[in-house]
Amino acid sequence: MNHLHTTNQPYRLGLVSALHQEQAGLIALLENARTVTRGMRDYTSGRLWGMECVCVLSRIGKVAAAATAATLIERFGVTHILFTGVAGSVDRRVKVGDIVVADALVQHDMDARPLFPRGEVPLLGQSLFATDRGTTDSAGAAASAFLGDGLADGFAGIPAADREAFRLVQPTVHRGLIASGDAFIHQRETRAALKEAFPALLAVEMEGAAVAQVCFEFGVPFAVVRTISDGADEGAPLDFMQFIDRIAARYAHGLVRRYCASLPAGR
Ligand code: ADE
């Protein structure tokens, strides 16, 4: 599916993050903003850097994310979904401050063995949910541009003290597998077990694969982009809290601005 759309259907992007700290500031930038509350979520529609968007915070976990994605599609008519937020790294090449762009997602806590293989969603016959290629390419290009320009122009305004604290020296973009589950991963053994179960795994979070399943079922193209906030180990709770408070929103802003600006006018 091509995200640039060749049909007459207007492009309307659902922009989702789990937490306020991961999307802070974007809603304030929406032009002609209009908020509708549905199922305990606020959906704010408007124009963001020229693009028709609906911004929403899903809250944490797969059920919350799935309900939000389904509502975005059914009630708000989004044509594409971009999920941005933070994740824990489960690969030693993937560092705090790096960006992981999902090319596929899996629900690591979906386990109906021995009836179905681990990770497979029963009756759907699927464990890996591929992201939309065009949307993911655009999001990946936006992520690379953000980290590239970001370094050149004072790192998106992230103060030197924060850059030092989080060791943001030369963050890079990775593309690969992200796993989601209803657990905050904060123990080395759990992290290692996940990596063993899914050797290609780069990062772990709590929503992306749920959005992926809903988008798959509705045929809606989507992308998931995660900034690494922690190492999914014993240091994760503190690292996560500090990262979302001080860094995450700057990444979301830098990424979404470039993503919106990269698509042609008049869409
Ligand atoms: N999101 C960010 N860090 C995470 C972790 N360690 N586990 C699950 N979700 C996360």
How does this model look, in words?
The structure is a single chain. The relative contact order is 0.23. The two termini are 16 Å apart. This protein is of the alpha/beta class and 267 residues long. Mean pLDDT is 92; it is low at 1-6. The chain has a domain at 83-262: Nucleoside phosphorylase domain (Rossmann fold), CATH 3.40.50.1580. A hairpin with a 2-residue loop joins strand 3 and strand 4 (51-57). A 5-stranded mixed beta barrel has the order 5-9-8-6-10, surrounded by 4 helices. The longest helix is centred in the middle third of the chain and has 20 residues, at 133-152. It contains 9 helices and 10 strands. The structure holds adenine. Residues 86-88, 184-186, 204-206, 229-230, 232, 236, 240 line the site of adenine.
Q: Count up the helices.
A: 9
The largest sheet, given as strand count, sense and whether it forms a barrel, is: 5 strands, mixed, barrel
What's the number of extended β-strand segments?
10
* CATH classification class of one domain: Alpha Beta
Q: How do the strands of the widest beta sheet line up side by side?
A: 5-9-8-6-10
Beta-strand content estimate = 25-35%
Low-confidence stretches: 1-6
State the CATH topology of one domain.
Rossmann fold
- Estimated structural class: alpha/beta
Order of helices and strands: EHHEEEHEEEHHEHEHEHH
What is Rg? Answer: 17 Å
**Distinct compounds present:** adenine
Shape: globular
Mean pLDDT: 92
